[in-house]
Write a structure and sequence with these properties.
- The complex is a heterodimer of chains A (about 270) and B (about 260).
- Helices cover about 75% and strands about 0% of the residues of chain A.
- With about 270 residues, chain A is mostly helical.
- Chain B contains 13 helices and 2 strands; from the N terminus they run ααββααααααααααα.
- Chain B has a two-stranded antiparallel ribbon.
- In chain B, helix 9 packs antiparallel against helix 10 and helix 12 packs antiparallel against helix 13.
- Classes of the chains: A mainly alpha (about 270), B mainly alpha (about 260).
- At the A-B interface, helix 2 and helix 8 of A face helix 2, strand 1 and helix 10 of B.
Chain lengths: ~270, ~260
């Protein structure tokens, strides 16, 4: 079976992420503090206006959205740009390029391991907690299935964006700057810090034409919007699929051009 | 006095070396600067988006919040510019290179921090200054020599809190492995310093005032200008608390450095 050789990389990723247990603890603690601050901030914001629902979102909706968005963020964070940038700078990338498997798929399967781990460690507990605290504000039904499909597509979109940004490092030799630009843009325009429903009309239209909102906003909408028609759900997934294909194409093309330029000093 | 002049001269010399070495990676420098501007612009956009929907938060209007925001950006500039080498501390400690700092006849902490000056922070300073001047104008606040001196002192003392926090977070690497996550978590707090501490419940108000003192980065000092009729005692005490925090973090950092035994290589 062809998949088996790839799952070996997944396993290696899992084992590696288990090495850093204390970091998982600090990350969870940091996330917890972030959630507390977000909670009070939005509570204060909602307390300052008369209407309970703003832009179609109540305080509870906003909170659920933001909590799950931050959990999704921790789950999808792959540090791919850092890994690629560093292995380009140190020259380790040569060893990865020599492997009898395309570099892109090697990195994908390798990072899938740590993604799987953080899904179990951060996202699942958070989602269960939200479900219990809100006493079932998340509807359990067919939407879960669409959500899972949305998450997988979002993972791919996120991966290809990271791959494109990582490839930029071949040209620039700057990791920090390139990575921070990517992070800032993705976080803002994906709706991870502020729900996209709050954006002013023009900005929302602009955001709609970008791939970033398909990473966090789409899966979350598939999960928490009640009574979404099947047609609308499929439409959201199709848009995601469109971005997967486009970004895959761009990343492949960009990589093939860039790899010819790579220079590694000795080693 | 003579000692201070001596240290200033050394700082200038080390700084010049650092800038020269940075200039040899020009592309990296330019991209990092653009990245910093991106961070500030994006932070401002999210701030602006929230206030498009909500005219005020807990009695603080848009321009007052903008004041807090600009103030926090300026107060966070020194930690970015002068203490950025904290981020590399754990790498030096693990690789054993830290030992080179231990053999210099000047203050260890000073020498270590002087080695890096992060120019990117100046973009943040500019961004914060424009924001605070705009808010100052819109709020129609008084402009006089005394107020400007007060503002200057307030900003300097406010900056000490974040410096202290980052020193302490960085120094944890002398004792624990993987302290990078401690630093990332501590650094995130800066994003919350720009909100009035009154939005939190009493427990967290206490925590953010006395345990993780981020309320001093923008909220308490800003009261001096925005709520000049009811300035709490903590605002007046904040310079003293700031200096004390910095001193404690410095002692903690030095204690870690003193316990450093090298890697033997």
């Amino acid at each position: 079976m062809g998949l088996k050789k790839y799952l070996t990389f997944t396993r290696a990723g899992i084992v590696e992420s288990l090495q850093f247990r204390s970091s998982i603890f600090v990350t969870i603690l940091g996330n917890f503090i972030y959630l507390i601050i977000t909670y009070y901030l939005w509570k204060a914001i909602y307390a300052s206006v008369d209407s309970k629902v703003i832009n179609g979102m109540s305080f509870a909706d906003t909170m659920i959205y933001l909590v799950l968005a931050s959990a999704l963020f921790y789950f999808m964070e792959v540090y791919l740009v850092w890994d690629m940038g560093r292995s380009i700078q140190t020259g380790k990338i040569v060893l990865d390029l020599l492997k009898p498997i395309p570099y892109q798929s090697f990195m994908f399967w390798y990072s899938s391991g740590s993604c799987l781990m953080s899904f179990i460690i951060t996202f699942l507990p958070t989602a269960v907690l939200v479900y219990i605290v809100t006493k079932g504000a998340i509807h359990l039904g067919i939407n879960l299935l669409f959500f899972m499909a949305g998450v997988v597509l979002a993972l791919l979109i996120n991966y290809f964006i990271n791959l494109i940004v990582g490839t930029i490092c071949i040209h620039t030799e700057s990791i920090w700057g390139v990575n921070i630009m990517k992070e800032v843009i993705v976080l803002l325009f994906s709706g991870a810090t502020i729900p996209i429903a709050f954006f002013p009309e023009k900005l929302r239209t602009l955001v709609f034409y970008m791939p970033f909102q398909a990473i966090y906003n789409t899966p979350l909408r598939l999960l928490i919007t009640p009574n979404m028609s099947r047609q609308e759900r499929l439409q959201l997934l199709l848009i995601q699929l469109f971005w997967v294909v486009v970004l895959y194409g761009i990343s492949k093309l960009f990589w093939n051009i860039s790899i010819k330029k790579i220079t590694v000093n000795g080693g | 006095m003579k000692r201070i002049r001596f240290y200033l001269r050394i700082y200038r010399k080390i700084l010049a070396q650092d800038l020269k070495s940075k200039m040899s990676y020009r592309a990296d420098f330019i991209i990092s600067t653009i990245g910093m501007i991106f961070t500030n612009v994006a932070g401002f956009i999210s701030f602006w988006v929230v206030f498009q929907n909500f005219p005020s938060v807990m009695g603080w209007n848009y321009h007052e919040m903008l004041f807090l925001y600009g103030f926090s950006l300026i107060a966070l500039t020194p930690v970015q510019c002068f203490f950025d080498n904290n981020w590399s501390l754990r790498h030096y400690v693990y690789s054993g290179d830290f030992i080179k700092y231990c053999f210099r006849p000047i203050n260890l902490f000073f020498y270590y921090m002087s080695e890096v000056f992060d120019i990117k922070g100046l973009g943040q300073l500019l961004f914060g200054s424009v924001t605070i001047i705009y808010a100052w104008n819109k709020l129609g606040l008084e402009v006089s020599v005394i107020v400007l001196v007060e503002l200057f002192i307030a900003i300097i003392t406010a900056s000490l809190f974040m410096i202290a926090l980052m020193n302490a977070a960085a120094a944890t690497c002398f004792w624990i492995v993987n302290s990078g996550y401690v630093m990332v978590t501590a650094f995130k707090f800066k994003d919350y310093s720009r909100y009035p501490v009154t939005i939190f419940s009493p427990v967290f108000r206490f925590v953010f005032t006395f345990v993780i003192p981020i309320a001093f980065i923008s909220y308490y000092p800003s009261l001096l200008f925005l709520r000049s009729n009811t300035v709490p005692l903590l605002t007046w005490l904040s310079p003293a608390i700031g200096v004390a925090s910095f001193y404690l973090s410095y002692k903690f950092w030095m204690k870690g450095a003193a316990s450093y035994s090298g890697t033997g290589s």
